[in-house]
# Entry
Amino acid sequence: MTAPVTLPLWFFLLILLFAGMTFASHFLFPSVRWFFRRRLEKAVKRLNRRLQNPIQPFKLLRRYDLIQRLCYDPEVTRAIVAHARDHNVREDVAFQRARRHAREIVPSFSAFAYFGWGVRLARIFSNAFFRVRLGHHDPEALSGIDPQATVIFVMNHRSNMDYVLVTHLVSDRSALSYAVGEWAQIWPLSRLIRAMGAYFIQRKSRDALYRAVLRRYVQMATEGGVTQAIFPEGGLSLTGAARPPKMGLLSYILEDVDLQARDVVFVPVALNYDRVLEDSVLIRKARSGGERFGAPISLVMGAVVKQLWLRVTGRFHKFGYAAVSFGTPVSLRAVPDLQTRPEALAQALMDRIADIVPVLSVPLLCDLLLEGLQSPADLGRAFQAALAQLEGAHVHLPRQDPSYALEYGLRLLRERGIATEQAGGLRIVETEQDTARFYANSIRHLLGKPPYPLGAED
# Structure
């Protein structure tokens, strides 16, 4: 037992390596994880004291634990059995498929990532591209929401900047959990988005098992009090006007919710821009009869590089104003019959969003110029008349000065080549008619006008 053993040096080093790994995995790593988790819990407690809607424990669950909880949920288990029967596969194969769906959907929220650098980046990007303005909001109504309620921000979808803007503006309330589409499932973007608490969805999937897993995740998050942000339109507006609401996520939220245990409060949010970053892609999709936004990553990266080069060379100008308005919250506990009428709730929320869409200079000028050639004097009078007609709407004028707003909006339109000045007046460039219609459509409902159809390419 005490006799010496001779080993090759490489073998001895290998033994030491495995011994060190065993010690680290069984003793060192758990202690380190416990130490950092305790520090994180204390940091979250301090953070929750300044948030109007505290971060709920459900959101802080480890991703592995949440995936396990989702996969073994009774409803998901029944869906697994049904999938195995309908597709003639073994139940363990169906279970693994459900697990893959759960891994795709479930986020890996990091409070440090969200509040440490996520909100800072959102603020930097928002202010780098736009002059951000907070439009209509009722501080008393928003602060009066029960801190233990599940808050759902319901928004119109104009641009992928919507995520960034609203994250920036509600960072004093809570951490938002977004539903994002397939466009964001690109490494390393997907890792960053998961860390921000977003969950991925396949909007067009008709797989019953996938829908069951997604439904249960949304319901568990709602029951757990997670503050969420959803786009009822189901995708970006291709024409600038609001699209009819879809029932998917909203119907999942309403199913089997226990209002006695926790209220669900919907907050309408309306966004509008002087310039939508993806406008050319969206307009092409509308012309071709497309259903949703889609741009190759090469196009996106090319646009990013171009803007960076303009900034480096000192030729970059901000894209104008971006404004966000918050409507009166709708408490499901106060109107419980809406729980069984998702279509009525969706339409009521979309109507509230439509009523608070911010009116900006560029959309209003596009609508006026589309009526035909106008002299500067006639355009000034038409601008003032439109402002009078919009009294009571949420109009944002730069410097609160109609004359400057007119000048500022026209400058933006000229710089982009959308409007031009000819002998006798101003007009929309012929090839940019659809671009002008795209922006005008965002506010035409406030003027009592139907949206413009976007025509075919020449």
In short: The radius of gyration is 26 Å. Residues 361-447 form a domain with the Arc Repressor Mutant, subunit A fold (CATH 1.10.10). The mean pLDDT is 84.
